[in-house]
Structure prediction request, 324 residues.
Amino acid sequence: MLRIIKSPSDNGTYNLVLEKHLVDHLDTPTLLVWRNRPGVYIGRHQNTLDEIDTEYVEAQGFEVFRRLSGGGTIFHDESNVYYSFMFPNERSVTENFAYFNTMIVEFLHSIKVEAERSGRNDILVHGRKISGSAEHYAANNVVHHGSLLFATNIQHMAPALTPNKQKFTSKAISSVAQRVDNIMNHVELDVDQFTDKLIQYFVEKFGGTFDSISDDEHQATMKLIEDYYGTFEWNYGKSPEFTHTKEMRYPFGIVEVNLNVKNGTINNMRIVGDFFHTLDLSDIEQRFIGVRYQKADVESVIQAIDIPSIIVGATAEDILNLIW
Prediction:
C-alpha cells in the first residue's frame, strides 16, 4: 500500500523539510507530490553563492534552500511538479535511480510523452531535459525525489541560475548547464490536470490511498525549519569553503580584494594595490572577519568605516563592489 500526499503548501523549504520528517518516521511507503512558488534549490554539497545570481534571486523574492540530496541546483516555480518517493531501501543507489526513474518514464508514456532515461538521474524528451532526480538516505529508507518541468518559466530559470561575475575558487561541485524543455509542449493538459494524472497513475499502480498531513507532522516540520533547515547556517553556511578575488582599476589606483569564506562567513581578507592610504589596512580587514558573506552584512560593515579618509580617493561603493 502506498500513502499518497498532495502537499497543501507551496513553500519549497516546507515541502523538502516535510519530506525529511516523513522519511525519518516512515512506516508506510509514501509518495509526496507538490508544487512550489519560485525558488532555487541547491544540491547538498554545492556552494550556494557560486550557483545563483544572489542579487537577481533576492530582487525576485525567490527562496533559497539547500536540499539534503546531492546533485545540482534546480529552479522551481508553480508550473514545476515535484515528487518524492520515500520507501524502505531494498536496492543499491544505482538500482534505486533506475527503479524510480523508470516508473516516471512509464507514467509519461501513459500520457503519450516520448520520454527516456538518460544517464543516472535525468529524463529527456527528444534530447532535452524535462526531469532530474536526486536521492538521500535515512536509516533503512531511501528518498528519491525529482522535478518535472511542466511549464517552468525559463526566462526566470536562466538568470537565477547564472552566477554574477564574482571570481570564486571553490571546492564545491558545480551544476552542469543542460538544454531543457517543458512537458506542456508535448501534451494537451494544463499543470493541474498533469498533476492529477501523475497522482492517479500511482494510485492505480500501487493501490495507493490519499492522506493528509497530520497536525503532529506539520508541527514537527515547522520546528525543524525554525531550528535548523530554515537558517542561514544551513542554506549558506554549509557551502564548502571558497575564495573570492576581484581587482578594479580606479582613478586613484588599482585595488584588489582577496577573501576566504568558510561556513558562510569571511574567514580572512586582504586588500592590496598601488593606491595611497592613511592607516594600516589591517584595521579595515579585521572588521570583516566573522561577518556573513551576504551583501547586506558586508554593506553594513563598510558603512561604518570612513573609507575616503583611509583609502585616498575611494568611496564605500568602490569597496563594496570589490567585495561583492
Notes: Residues 3-235 form a domain with the BirA Bifunctional Protein; domain 2 fold (CATH 3.30.930.10). The longest strand covers residues 128-138. Confidence is low (pLDDT under 50) at residues 173-177.
